[in-house]
What we know:
The protein has helices at 10-23, 35-43, 69-79, 102-107, 120-127, 144-157, 171-180, 193-199, 202-211, 222-238, 257-266, 296-299, 315-319, 343-346, 351-359; strands spanning 29-32, 55-58, 84-88, 111-114, 132-139, 162-169, 188-192, 215-218, 243-245, 267-274, 278-287. By secondary structure, the protein is an alpha/beta fold. β8 (215-218), α10 and β9 (243-245) form a beta-alpha-beta unit.
Amino acid sequence: MRYLDEYRDERLFRSQLARLTQIATRPWVLMEVCGGQTHTLVRYGIDELLPAGMEMVHGPGCPVCVTPVEIIDKAIALARRPNTILVSYGDMMRVPGSESDLLHVKALGGDVRMVYSPTESVKIALENPACEVVFFGVGFETTAPANAMVAWQARRQGIRNLSLLSSHVLVPPAVEMLLSSPHNRVQGLIAPGHVCSIMGTGAYEELAAKYKVPIVIGGFEPVDLMEAIVMLTAQLEEGRCDMENQYRRSVREAGNQRAREMLFEVYEVCDRKWRGLGEVAVSGLQLSAAYREFDAELRFGLEDISVAEPKECISAMILQGLAKPKQCGAFGTRCTPESPLGAPMVSSEGACAAYYLYRRHNGEMSEDECVPSGEGA
């Protein structure tokens, strides 16, 4: 399949790895932001093939993982209401809130429905006029335009029993928080190609220039990621700090103009809490004034819910690149995909889920290497 098979070609991958071995002279620390990139790195063992001393750390690039606990609790509260249908993607069903998850609410009789397209919620609302229908949408700039279509269609069709519970976030402000942190270890960054396919390259050009950190917009296949690592390493070895685009087959400088127009018609920028990072200024999207009537938090009075994150889960450190999943003392024992303590273990893009799936029996951590419980809270 074009644009897939060639980016999994072993010969191309090994030629890039050979080039990396030739040019790398120092133990650089690189971060991939996207959870899909994390899964590729771990599944194929790419991070273990790097020259001695080079390290890949995992960033806050899983939208499910960074959704705060209180948003999950708000979704659960809505799902428990009579005459209410909570509509969600499947990857949100088992993400733990403070006491439960949506799958348990469904098992106890709550009307929770899994969909594959956000606009399915429009059809559900039209078919159930006596019920309040709430679409639970989270994600980065990639999914925000499609989720915005729910409110856009509801407004134009005059659908009054449909609203959105959303927790959309913007990646660049979180990256800026990490790069400006006194604890930052990242010397080069692989930016998420899918986000840039919507938003373009401008924000990452600004970050590279401001923080003197090379950034490469990368794809998601093994050859994509190895090429991005080579491009970052070449910049670091040459003392350059530029933004480069490895994912040229999908990312253009201006991004997707139609998607951006939809996004900024329906949403406006706001401050937003990220699970594991706390509140990040101008990093969120909320419904704009013209669409505020479709905001489920306002409609059902849910604004004041506030929940502390589980102390045992070190997802905060993992999402900042300060720890690896297997350094958590609960990894694979008290925290598994069947019984997760935190979202990174249950999400299909979570770093903990990737390590559990592909690496849980490979090189177990000693007790001295584990991060004490509560340091990530």
